[in-house]
Amino acid sequence: MTPTDADRLERERLDADRRYNDALTALDRTVAAVAAQPGADGDSLARLMSALIAFLQQITALVDTMDRALAADAARRVDALQPALASIDEVRVQAGVLQRAIEMLTRSAGSNPQSNPQPVIHNPQFASPAPDDYKYVGFEDAFRGSDQAIEDKLRAYVPLFTGRARVLDIGCGRGELLAALQAAGVGARGIDTNTGMVAVARERGLDAQHADALTYLTALPDGSLDGLVATQVIEHLDSSYLMRLIDAAARALQPGAPIVLETINPACWLAFFSSYIRDITHVRPVHPETLQYLLRASGFTRVEIRYSAPVPDHMKMKTIDLPAEVLAATDAPAKALAQVAHAVNANAVILNNLMFTHLDYAAVGYRS
What we know:
- This protein folds into 2 domains: about 1-130; about 135-310 and about 355-365, Rossmann fold (3-Layer(aba) Sandwich).
- About 55% of the residues lie in helices and about 10% in strands.
- The chain has 12 helices and 7 strands.
- Helix 6 links the parallel strand 2 and strand 3.
């Protein structure tokens, strides 16, 4: 996106914000004028309805410009990552050339009967990760937040694991929760299928390794874990894998051990149409009631849903507060105004409960 396009979008957003505020001011003035005329006639009611409609129209225009501005900002963030990604790809190519040269020299040495070739040692810690892994690390940095911000959010789960020594963090990512658990004296290790994420966690001195969750859990002895957590993971899994994963977790956890599965809340429309669909690695959204049932069906008890990341009030639908004298008035225009305001407010509550509740939730249960 060119600077000219960015400037245009910002001007459109500011203009829409100005028109929204003007319409709201006009509506407030009209409400006050009607309230000041107990005997207001049909013309007054018509002016009020006109002002209300104009205000509602500006809400749509404002949301549209905000959506386009957010999309443009996301595009700029991705563009900013491109030089770094290009550098990573170049290093990967150079590493591949060097590896092929080493292999050629090794084969050459092996063909010489007087040589004493040394074995080639492949250390997985220094293996070249797939470039897509690093791209996703960049994606997390751009859209999910900084390590510290995520660690602060996930710290709410730490008390559930206090005093435990064998906690497994599935999909540990950059190690935000592992760091919080470590700071609280909880023994924990993490696994992740993204080698770039694992590398970042290891650089922080955390116990993390590259592994598939189901394969890893299946290989553990029964009851060998005293806690399990997976944050922002299950939306990346298909339903069959998820159900087998929960069964494997139930087998690997000892009785009374907690399990925490956090994911995006698809029952909140804002979360679904922003956080969920933004990430192309997401496979299937999981409704809170569905996840609660799956845990119970696999032998977990006291399963509760904990919601987090509430939508800020400034992003929710606004209601209309009518003056007390208007609500107390008995003339027809005032009653009509009160009915319109009641309908608008009721619809705002319905939309807020569907669209603007909590962005995330966690199902928390205990092994029976």
